[in-house]
């Protein structure tokens, strides 16, 4: 069982080297060697989130979480800490994911708040913290029973479930639910196959998320040497074919100006054409538009 808690704090400028020292202290809290954890820095790159893995030494000169830096993630054996900038308020939000009961969660939160000298914006005191069922992430037996067979422990479902916990801490809710959560995993030898709806999704994940996904997967299961993104099966049925033909009629001769995420949907986009026409589509149908606009 893993428990997730999110708490908000005033943003601040940390002394030089303070976040680096925090990485070492957090490793000691989890009884880990400082060289073991994956530390992720997530940046805003022209409106898209990109992430890179760094060492504790790389944190020496990071003194605050401000654009283009979006978040700092610490991924240990039984602890995940993600410090993220809240864009609307400029405050900090910290997500705590930890294996253990409520008391261990409280100890971790107290440790982090004291070590980083944070000013809490939460009405609920740590001593009064309660964990409801919605804050508990169901885990497989890998968290509690390490005596299971190697085949069970290393199954693709378990590997991917553990990877999703880390990936969710690295990206915004919108990015995670739009691009990463819908992927369906399978294994072919030492390759992890991630199945997606269409080639547009493949291109997007290949260019923005694949490298990070592979790094996370290899931190969990080093025998995985490659991640392959592919289209899963043939999803066109008669209904889709009819919808496709109707769409072609609507956009024939039009030129795409830009594409933006639809604010009312986690997996939808608004395609804006140069004549001002706006077309709303889900991510699995975007390739229909690009088939008609191959140069856009």
Tell me what you see in this structure.
The chain has helices at about 20-30, 100-115, 150-155, 155-170, 175-180, 200-210, 210-220, 240-250, 285-290, and strands at about 1-10, 40-45, 50-55, 70-75, 80-85, 90-100, 135, 185-190, 190-195, 225-230, 255-260, 270-275, 280. It contains nine helices and 13 strands. The chain folds into three domains: about 1-140, no CATH class; about 150-235, DnaA, N-terminal domain (GMP Synthetase, Chain A, domain 3, 2-Layer Sandwich); about 250-290, no CATH class. Helix 1 runs antiparallel to helix 2 (about 100-115) and helix 4 (about 155-170) packs across helix 7. Residues about 135-155 and about 235-240 have low confidence and may be disordered. It has a seven-stranded antiparallel sheet with strand order 3-2-4-5-6-1-7, with helices on both faces. The protein has a three-stranded mixed sheet with strand order 8-9-10. A hairpin with a 6-residue loop joins strand 5 (about 80-85) and strand 6. The protein is of the alpha+beta class.
Helix-strand makeup class: alpha+beta
DSSP, total strands: 13
Percent strand equals 25-35%
In total, the number of domains comes to 3
Query: How big is the Rg?
Result: 21 Å
Described by the principal axes of the CA atoms, the overall outline is: globular
Organism: Desulfosporosinus hippei DSM 8344
Protein name: DnaA N-terminal domain-containing protein
InterPro entries: DnaA_N_dom (IPR024633), DnaA_N_sf (IPR038454)
Domain DnaA N-terminal: 159-218
């Amino acid at each position: 069982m893993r428990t997730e808690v999110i708490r908000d704090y005033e943003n601040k400028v940390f002394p030089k080297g303070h976040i680096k020292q925090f990485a070492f202290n957090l490793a000691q809290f989890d009884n880990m060697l400082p060289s073991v954890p994956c530390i992720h820095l997530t940046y805003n790159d022209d409106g898209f989130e990109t992430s890179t893995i760094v060492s504790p030494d790389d944190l020496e000169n990071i003194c605050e979480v401000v654009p283009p830096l979006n978040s700092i993630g610490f991924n240990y054996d039984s602890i995940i800490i993600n410090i993220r900038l809240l864009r609307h308020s400029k405050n900090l939000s910290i997500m705590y994911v930890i294996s253990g009961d409520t008391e261990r969660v409280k100890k971790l939160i107290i440790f982090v708040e004291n070590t980083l000298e944070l000013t809490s914006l939460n009405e609920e005191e740590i001593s009064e913290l309660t964990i409801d069922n919605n804050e508990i992430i169901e885990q497989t037996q890998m968290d509690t029973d390490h005596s299971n067979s190697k085949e069970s422990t290393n199954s693709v479902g378990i590997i991917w479930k553990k990877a999703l916990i880390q990936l969710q801490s690295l990206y915004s809710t919108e990015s995670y639910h739009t691009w990463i959560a819908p992927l369906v995993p399978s294994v072919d030898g030492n390759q992890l196959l991630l199945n997606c709806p269409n080639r547009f999704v493949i291109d997007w994940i290949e260019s923005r998320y694949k490298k990070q996904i592979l790094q996370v997967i290899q931190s969990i299961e080093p025998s995985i040497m490659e991640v392959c993104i592919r289209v899963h099966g043939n999803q066109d049925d008669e209904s889709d074919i009819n919808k496709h033909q109707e769409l072609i009629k609507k956009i024939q001769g039009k030129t795409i100006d830009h594409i933006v995420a639809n604010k009312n949907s986690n997996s939808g986009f608004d395609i804006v054409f140069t004549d001002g026409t706006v077309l709303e589509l889900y991510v699995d149908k975007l390739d229909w538009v690009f088939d008609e606009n191959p140069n856009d």
